[in-house]
Specification:
151 residues; alpha+beta; Glutaredoxin; 7-stranded mixed β-sheet; two-stranded antiparallel sheet; 5 helices
Length: 151
Amino acid sequence: MPLAIGDKAPAFSGIDQNEKKVSLKDLKGKKVILYFYPKDDTPGCTAESCNLRDNWSQLKKKGYEIVGVSADDAKSHKKFADKYDLNFTLIADTVKKVIEAYGVWGEKSMYGKKYMGIIRTTFVINEKGKIEKIFDKVDTKNHSEQILESI
């Protein structure tokens, strides 16, 4: 069953771009923007990540932590974060445990070809660990604005 607003956010843990363990439990009491993206250093994912970076201070003022997740490994995340000066956590979910827990692994289609991949989705989680908002139609170039307008 897909996750819905009001559901308890599934617990997660993973390794970030600096090889540090990060978990939802570590973020307890904080508001979290958990965004799932298909692949490091691709046009849409770069636009989305840079937009969140550029508006990080506004989100931080409202008490939010930003955590990105993709199936890329920590080394790829490190390269991506360094290249674009990303100032937040990127979790490497190479075994797709977090991706599947949040229900964002599914069938996609490009140029008429169907394949399995990460469905770009963002979850806004409140300080009590409940899902407050789900964005399944992400505007990669203006994602921060989408979030800020809804919180």
